[in-house]
Amino acid sequence: MIIDFIIAILWSLSPFGEAKVGIPYGLLNGLNIYLVFVLCFAANVLVFPLMIFFLEKVNRYFLKWGFYKKSAIFVARRAKTGSGDKIKRYGFWGLIFFVMLPVPGTGVYAGSIASYLFKIEKTKAFWANTIGIFLSSLIVWSATLASMKGIG
Q1: pLDDT tens-digit profile of 100-125?
Q2: How confident is the model at residue 152, as a pLDDT?
Q3: 130: how many CB neighbours lie within 10 A of its CB?
Q4: How confident is the model at residue 69 (pLDDT cuts 50, 70, 90)?
Q5: Quick one: which of 80, 123, 130 has its CA closest to 105?
Q6: Which of 14, 87, 101, 139 could form a disulfide with 106, with the two C-beta atoms 3.0–4.6 Å apart?
């Protein structure tokens, strides 16, 4: 049981799923529905400060390497084209909406990169990402519970 909580938390920290995968994993493995929500949401929120630290401190060092620089430019272009218009136009609310969408390519990783690229003030960016994560987690949690009721 503890292992399942750890795996759900790791999925929520992972750029390959975030809480969009961690929550269903935990629920489908029979974990407490409220504890899964809280732990996966909290783990996903933790990603924002880690990403901002990485982008501000570590990223500068890695940009000296050609392969990393090409990859970083590719990711930055995707973040700008995928979210740029909405975030530029709607600012805080656009960032919330972008992070909230429970589909691949959105979430706190992309939201953190977009916040960094568009130079959104850190406190505002943190709250926009947190609200977006909460709404996304709530959607995934509710949809997973509803589908489980239909299955069981």
Answers
A1: 988 877 889 888 988 888 889 999 99
A2: 53
A3: 18
A4: confident
A5: 80
A6: 101
- The token pair at 54 is 């990485």
What is the number of residues in the chain?
152
Residue type, 96: I
Q: Which amino acid is located at 77 in the chain?
A: R
User: Rounded to an integer, what distance in angstroms lies between the CA atom of residue 106 and that of residue 44?
Assistant: 13
pTM above 0.85? yes
| Token duo for residue 81 | 């084209």
Q: Treating both helix axes as pointing N-terminal to C-terminal, what angle do 33-53 and 2-13 enclose, rounded to 10 degrees?
A: 40
Alpha carbon distance 8, 11 (integer Å): 5
Contact call for residues 8 and 23 (beta carbons, < 8 A):
yes
The stretches of 14-152 forming alpha helices (DSSP H) are 19-28, 33-53, 59-62, 66-90, 92-100, 108-117, 122-151
Which pLDDT band, with edges at 50, 70 and 90, does 8 fall under? Answer: very high
Query: Closest by alpha carbon to 99, among 129, 143, 123?
Result: 129
